[in-house]
Amino acid sequence: MATDAITAHLAQQPGIQKLPSPKLTLFVRRAFLDADTCAALCAMIDAERRPSTISDHNGDAAFRTSETCDLPATDPLVARVDAALAAFTGLDPLHGEPLQGQRYAVGQEFKAHTDYFEPNGVDFHRYCSVAGNRTWTAMVYLNEPEAGGATRFKAVDKTIQPETGKLVCWNNHRPDGSLNPATIHHGMKVRAGTKYVITKWYRELPWGW
Ligand SMILES: O=C(O)CCC(=O)C(=O)O
Ligand SMILES: [Fe+2]
């Protein structure tokens, strides 16, 4: 589906909320996943985590301090969540990167960044030569840390609080197809407890599954 068709499809989903901003196409759907599914995903993330990485290193070793888990697409639960994300968003599952989990302990964060790859960045070819750049991001909070851990979109002055099962998705491009710097967002420091999310990024072209 074309970008505009995805936006229209999302806008029709039950329970959807659209950010009222001309600068950023972003949707929130509370209780997208049930608590049992979220808990099972948290356990998978706990079992297989590794330090998170970034592209285009900027010299700040503390830029992304969380841990990441590559969730196996062959696992029935992961496959069900993947299919639910594709159906809800209308995005082509073949254009999706493998689903990932992210875990933030107290003090961990992912500083302000965009999810697309900078066309002039040193890592662009490495990450984008096969499937192109990222199009949409879908993220689901799997739990509620006791304090901190919100996601802040500073360009539109919007802060989203973690809530078990809450889906946030946004278009990394503007309606005219250009990359949208207003998608800049910060996974803020967890102050108490642990934060878990899943992230699903979609590409311009098939991922090559
Ligand atoms: O954890 C968050 O709130 C944001 C995560 C994020 O931006 C990412 O993984 O790209
Ligand atoms: Fe991000």
Automatic annotation (TrEMBL):
Q: Per its Swiss-Prot or TrEMBL entry, what cofactor is needed?
A: L-ascorbate
Every Fe2OG dioxygenase domain range = 95-204
UniProt key word Metal-binding: yes
What PROSITE patterns does the database record attribute to this sequence?
Answer: FE2OG_OXY (PS51471)
Alphabetized, the UniProt keywords read:
Dioxygenase, Iron, Metal-binding, Oxidoreductase, Vitamin C
Which Pfam families does this chain map to? 2OG-FeII_Oxy_3 (PF13640)
Q: Name one GO molecular function term.
A: L-ascorbic acid binding
Listed name of the protein: Prolyl 4-hydroxylase
The organism encoding this protein is Sphingomonas palmae
